[in-house]
Structure formats: C-alpha cells, structure tokens
Amino acid sequence: MQNVVMTSGLCKAYGSRTAVQGLDLCVPYGSVYGFIGPNGAGKTTTMKLLLGLIHPTSGSIRLLDEELTPQSRLKILSRTGSLIESPSYYAHLTAAENLQLVAGLKGAEAKDVVRVLDIVRLTPDARRKVGQFSLGMRQRLGIAMALLGWPTLLILDEPTNGLDPAGIQEMRALLAEMPRRCGATVLISSHLLSELEQIVDHVGILNKGRLLYQGPLAGLQQHSRGDVALRLLHPALAAPVLKSAGLAGLAREERGEVVLPPLKEAFLADLVGSLAAAGAGVVGVSCRSRSLEEIFLSLTKADGETGVV
Known about the structure:
Number of strands: 15
Radius of gyration: 24 Å
Largest sheet: 6 strands, mixed
CATH topology of the largest domain: Rossmann fold
Shape: elongated
Distance between the termini: 32 Å
Strand content: 25-35%
Strand order of the largest sheet: 7-8-9-4-10-11
Oligomer: single chain
Number of helices: 12
CATH architecture of the largest domain: 3-Layer(aba) Sandwich
C-alpha cells in the first residue's frame, strides 16, 4: 500500500455553492500530510467526505486500499481514527472512563486505554475529571480517543486550534512522532502554517475547494526559492553588469544589499564572476528561502493565480 488516501475528481456541492471541486488527494503511507488552507477553503468538508460523514456530489474515495462505499465504510473506519473540529467527552467522567467508553464502542481492548494515555502524556491525569482539563489536555484526550484500536490512518482537523504557544509546541511534538510510535499515517489540517512546517513531510494546499499544490514539503520549498541578496563594496559599479545581464529593471536595494529575483545557480555563478571582474567587490551572496507561509500566500493571493512561483 503506497498511498493510504487517494481521491479522484472529488466534488461536494451545496446547492449552487461548490465546497470541494475536482480534488485528487494522494497521501503516502507513513507520512505526516499537512492539509493547508484558509478558513472556508474546504478542509473540514474534505475530511468529512473521507470519513463518510457526508456524501460526495461526484468523484471517488479510496482509503487503505479499499473503495469507500456504504458497504465498506464500517470496515475502513475500524482502521481509522479521527478528530474533527473538537473532541466529544463527558465532563463529569475521568479521562480513563471516557476512553473506556470509546474503547467499548470501537471494540478495542481495555488495556489499549493505558497505551493511548501514555502516548498523549495524560497518564498522570487519568483519574481526573475531564471538566477540570485545560483546552490542550482535552485536545490530547481527543487524539487518545482517535488512537484507540491501533488505527492505520489518523485524520485530525485543526488539532492545535485555540491552544496557547506551549500547547501548540506540545501538540507539535506529539504529532511528529505518530508514524514512528504508532505506525499511523497522519492527515492533519491547519491554517497555522509555521507550526505545520515543522512537523509535516508532505503538503496539500487548498483554496476555494481546489488543490493548488500537492507533494513533498522539501520539493515545494526547493521549487519556490526566494530572492538573491548581494552585498557589494561598490554597488555603483554593478549597474552596467546587471544591465547587460537583463536584470537592471529587476534589481532593487534593501538595507545596503542589491536584491535580485530567484536565479538559476549557473546564471548566478556567472553573474558573481562578472561583478567581481567589474570591481564591484562581492563580499556576500545569500539565497533567501521562503517559508511555507510565504509560499502559501503567493499561491492563494486574491487575483486567483495558482501557479507555484
């Protein structure tokens, strides 16, 4: 099984409004896949489609090497854990009692409660009533519920939503180790791009129901290199060189540096050599890397352009 999740032409419409259109998701086995998009992009709708909570208008869904149908849904979901929007729990019961109830519903062994409490670091609080828990603790309890029964696929919708910085850091560390510790492929949605960048290895960028990019995070970052900054002793001597290279109208000065758009390595090497020969005095060359947030904003900008830049 190379891909845990595959969809083909997946669409969901509510009357005249299309929430998801032509979605071709591909989530590799053993990955932490970040599903990224602004509020209203269609992330939660897609996750509900994957779980069979709503029915697609058109297209197909394949999970864990099986087509998702009304007949196969229960079998597939028995190998899937999920947390959509916010966890459900009984506030007057303890964490362990809540998990025991869910374990019974999922047909999981009672001893599995001990395992998942340890994974989400709630063992010391197992006998506390959930009504006394912080938001971060309740989110971890929700993930513990999703982990009952050793799921192969874990679907988490905005698990860091509403958490403080310490809670986000704790959740980040927890999710990053899921494939190794639990053997679960993780599909996680969020709009906190800086946090996802630190834990995901694959990414899908969604906007207005359409998938703008999908693939390895490293590939996206490499493909979307940032500007080149040159530190020169004599910037005035660089002008003729930049003009002959066709860069005169593209260069700009920022904080004492000459900034150029992304350049191919061979072209940049020749340019630096020409600048040195002209006496411009090249003392520093830096290629600025764009963060996932910068890439995301360029992909989802208001004019609707969707090409990776």
